[in-house]
């Protein structure tokens, strides 16, 4: 049976926002990217400090 062209062929999602946005206010993409960059910088700093402390213990 053919569908009329006005109906989408995929299953429609509910009108709610994706689950990732349920707990946070909506942010634009640049805000999300900059906050992600900050998280990555913190991870790098923690990793570097652990590496240097390991070097000290090896000496």
List the topology elements.
Blueprint: H1 29-58
What is the helix tally? Answer: 1
> What string gives the helices and strands in order?
H
End-to-end distance: 76 Å
Mean model confidence by pLDDT: 61
Radius of gyration: 23 Å
The share of residues in extended strands comes to: under 5%
What's the shape?
rod-shaped
Total number of beta strands: 0
Percent in helix: 40-55%
The biggest beta sheet reads: none
Low-confidence stretches: none
Structural class: mainly alpha
Q: Overview of this structure, please?
A:
This protein is mainly alpha-helical and 59 residues long. The chain has a domain at 28-58. The chain is built from 1 helix and no strands. The chain has one helix at 29-58. The longest helix is centred in the last third of the chain and has 30 residues, at 29-58. It is rod-shaped. The model has no long low-confidence stretch (mean pLDDT 61).
């Amino acid at each position: 049976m053919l569908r009329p062209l006005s109906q989408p062929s995929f299953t429609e999602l509910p009108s709610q926002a994706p689950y990732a946005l349920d707990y946070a206010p909506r942010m634009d993409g640049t805000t999300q990217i900059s906050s992600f960059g900050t998280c990555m910088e913190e991870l790098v700093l923690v990793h570097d400090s652990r590496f240097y402390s390991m070097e000290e213990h090896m000496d």
